[in-house]
Each structure stands twice: as structure tokens, then as C-alpha cells.
Amino acid sequence: MQLSVFSGSRSELGEAHGRAHAALITHSLEVYDRLFHDFVGIGWAEARRTAERFLPMIERGFPEILDEMAGIARGAGLDLEDILTLNCRSEISLTQASGGCTAFSVNRDGTQWLAQNWDWRSDQLHNVVALELHPEGAPALVSVGEAGMVAKIGMNARGVGVCLNAIRSRTCGEGLPIHVALRKILEAEDVNQAIRVASHDRVCSPAHFLIASGDGRATGFEVHPGLPGVLEPRGGAVTHTNHLYAETATCQVEDFPRPDSRLRLARIDRLLHDRLPLGATIDAARLFAILSDHDNAPFSICRHFNPDQPAEERMETLFAVVMDLTARRLTLRHGKPCESEDTLEVQLDAG
């Protein structure tokens, strides 16, 4: 996978993104047109109308990002409403659809690590992009996600990083859409500013954000329109899959996880305990080996094609990412970490 590097104003960043990945963005729209039909029974036109309700929330919480969305639309030859809908896809579809992502942070020997698999529909595999952005007035950042979207999983030059776990829930209220909130986190000057996105700006639909920084801090936030659930490290680690378990969140939000979410959480906890005890030396290869685990396949941490699932619900691991936040280094394996030879490493200069 190649890294796309863009710099400039919001408008310039967006237009460069849109031009460079126009074909992939158009394909992403086709993928989500099918997904919205499969999971919530609506077409693209109705999804665009649904996305309009989130526009005032973005205008209040992060208005600058709308210039970048407009630039993406211009560069790709699409309407702003198409790009808005793509960036609100979680709020539109996660009443019924949830991925199978497994994420964790671990601190060992003075180094803060973040890692995760991103599991989603296989028809989105080739629409994954890695972006290195240098926005005017904000830290440089790297985001790995879907073409046409303003952010997903990544880190910035200040050593702030974030991972994402989808949560299936019917809750949707006031706050920033998930992917817009992730971008605001990635522009944070420090970890406290990143945490304010979860605790102050709030997020309009449930998700888990695992926020960490190169100075050794890591906290999980089960975000939603209310006060987020907070997960502090245990044994130097925070782990999460696709269900809520912080009492502050579970008493406010009802979620509908698939049965394998709790199995994967127990498995990642066991792997970290057994393979990365306190005092252990860690490198990216050891963390990718954990993300390649196939226990309880086909519902394992590393997720492969499962013909027994309905076609619209087949989720596979589309990429794995390991971040050394202390060194500001991100390593990506595009595809399943157990078999991928498509590896990209990005190093940011400390800001």
C-alpha cells in the first residue's frame, strides 16, 4: 500500500485527497449504497437525507472539517452531500451492522503501544487508504481508513493515537459523528485535548475510542451522546472488542453485540497476559503475531471468510495497524496480518 501525503488548508487537503482517490471514493459510495440497503433498507438518496441531520452538529463542534469534505467532493467530482453521507455511515448503518474489530493498548519498558485489527465487509478492502496529512494550524497526522472519509485509526506528531471499535446500538443523539470525532482527536495538541472530544464534544452514536499518548497514558472511552464510560489500564493494558462494559456506559446505552465479541475480548486479555508479561520486550512483529491469532475461528481475532454467514454479514480483517506512540511510528499491514506482505511504515517527526 502507498502512503498519500497532502499538506495545506482544509480545502487543499480535501481536494488533493479527492483527486488522488476519486475512483476509490466512488467505489466506497457503491459499497455503502449496498450496505445501507442490506442493513437498514434504504437507498443512497434516503441516506443522504438522513446525513443532513448531522450537519448542524458538525457546524457546532468542528466546522472547519466541512471545508475539507467540500474539497474531497470537488476533487472526486461528487456532491458535498455524498461525502457527508460517507462520513456519517456509522450513524446511518450501525443500528444493524457491526464489525469485529479487536483493539488494545499496552505499555512496556517506557513505550506506549496501540494496535488493532479492523474487520469489515470484504468489498471495502481495496478502498482502504493511508493518509499523511499536514493541515495548516494543526499537528501532522497519519490516518488509516476508507477513501473519502476524514479519519479513522491513527496517530499524530504530538504522540496522540486513537483506535476504534464499532458498537451496534439504536442510540443516536447529539454530538459529533464518529469519524469526524476521530479526526478531531487526531488534531489534538495533547492527550487532554483529545479526551475532551469524548467527554465534552461528545459523540452522537456509540463506539469505543482507545486514546493513548507517547508519554505512557492510555484510556478507553465508550462514547455516546452522554457521559462516556471510562476504561483505565489493567496491568498496563486496555483491551476492547465490540460490546460495552464500562458501567457508566452500560447504564445509559443498550447495545446488541454479536456473540463472538466477548470471546475475542477474553482471548486478547489472555494473549497479552501470557505473551507480554510485565518486563517483556515488545516490537511490532510481536503485536502483529497477537493480531494474527485464530483461536475460535472463524470468529477469531484475525477474521477470515466464513461461508456459513449470510453474504451481507461476512466480516473479514481488512487491515491491522501497530503504533509505537513514543517513537511516533505506525506500521500497517493491508489485509489479514497473518498473511499480508503489503506492509507500510510511517514515521512522523515529533511535533
TrEMBL record:
- Keyword set, alphabetical order: Acyltransferase, Transferase
Whether Calcium counts among this entry's keywords is no
**Matching InterPro entries:** C45_proenzyme-like, Peptidase_C45, Peptidase_C45_hydrolase
Is Lipid metabolism one of the keywords UniProt gives this record? no
Q: Which GO terms describe its molecular function?
A: acyltransferase activity
Enumerate the transmembrane spans: none
- Please state every residue range assigned to the domain named Peptidase C45 hydrolase: 107-337
NCBIfam families tied to this protein: C45_proenzyme
What is the protein name given in its UniProt record? Isopenicillin-N N-acyltransferase-like protein
Q: Which organism is it from?
A: Halomonas organivorans
Name the lineage. Answer: Bacteria, Pseudomonadati, Pseudomonadota, Gammaproteobacteria, Oceanospirillales
